[in-house]
């Protein structure tokens, strides 16, 4: 492993600000780097579709070992905010920030490890199968790069997304998620003069939310209302409130049940509110919109990709931890929506989505070594 090259690449990558939909500069850096390696890169039209300034990057390297199956290596180019100016600080084995931004190791640790692994197998002429390298956009805002990527372009049917904290860990199960948007409609009235002629949409929503199971529902299921907006003034009985939330579960039946429960709480609360004004009856109403955010990730623990990654980690003298998670990533789209055998490999990032984010260089190196070993093993088994 060329540790200093890997660390230099990582530092260069994190210094380039790349919030979601603004990944063009980091994409240019990657295209330049891959071009110098003699690797052709294609950019797709996902950026135009989602209002970003670049699409997903796909580099397809030919295999050097006959009959070795293709492997996908994927990471996302965008980071969460704050990331306008990232000043990485190196402190022994640890890289962190100056405390004013995230580090962006989520997911540039994955990007850097993939680059280094590809270089190493080529420099050392380690026989490998075809490699599909995919760098996606806009993962953090809802997996939009992966959702708009044409999976038919991939040769690989299996592989890894590197987008998880920790090291020597493989995520094989993750939740499916539904998004929920509910508009509660009441009836406007003067709050002092004739409150009995109104229906408070805020009161209806409040009743619904008070009756709702939220937070951790069970080991596999969570639910949250994260946004509420409504009302016009304190002297007007409010006639409209919008509530937005989500629910996630690794169990599809539980996801459906929790989604139904949340919608029903609103409907049942609304049904209790009616008022007659000048001979006309008014009832509270709700308009609910449920959209699937992403599908679940579910890779059997005895599948080829798990065996391959276990072998790769054990090749470094370590043990692989295989586990489930409560968050989604690009692998949910490739696996849950398209049926590919894509798991999520830890790449060393820590305390992600905070200004305290850090990474150990040892873990970054270990991740790249695991990928090299996976590419090698994939061609010999
Ligand atoms: Zn990520």
Could you say how many structural domains there are in total?
2
What is the count of β-strands? 22
CA-atom Rg in angstroms? 24 Å
Please work out how many helical segments DSSP would assign.
10
Cofactors, ions, other ligands: zinc ion
Secondary-structure class = alpha+beta
Quaternary structure classification? single chain
Query: What is the CATH C-level name of the largest domain?
Result: Alpha Beta
End-to-end C-alpha gap:
23 Å
CATH superfamily of the largest domain: Zn peptidases
Taken as a percent bin, the fraction of beta residues is 25-35%
Roughly what is the average pLDDT, rounded to an integer?
97
Q: Which residues sit in consecutive blocks of at least 5 with pLDDT less than 50?
A: none
User: Helical percent range?
Assistant: 25-40%
Query: What name does the CATH topology of the largest domain carry?
Result: Aminopeptidase
Assign the CATH architecture of the largest domain: 3-Layer(aba) Sandwich
The global form is elongated
Largest sheet: 9 strands, mixed
Walkthrough of the structure:
The chain has 381 residues and is α+β, with helices and mostly antiparallel strands. It has two domains: 3-174 and 296-380, Zn peptidases (Aminopeptidase), CATH 3.40.630.10; 177-294, 2-Layer Sandwich (Alpha-Beta Plaits). 33% of the residues lie in helices and 30% in strands. It has helices at residues 3-15, 24-36, 46-50, 105-123, 144-147, 201-210, 252-271, 304-315, 330-337, 361-380; strands at 41-43, 57-61, 71-76, 88-91, 94-97, 131-136, 158-164, 169-174, 176-185, 189-190, 215-218, 221-230, 236-237, 240-249, 274-277, 280-283, 285-294, 297-298, 321-324, 341-346, 349-350, 358-360. The chain is elongated. It binds zinc ion.
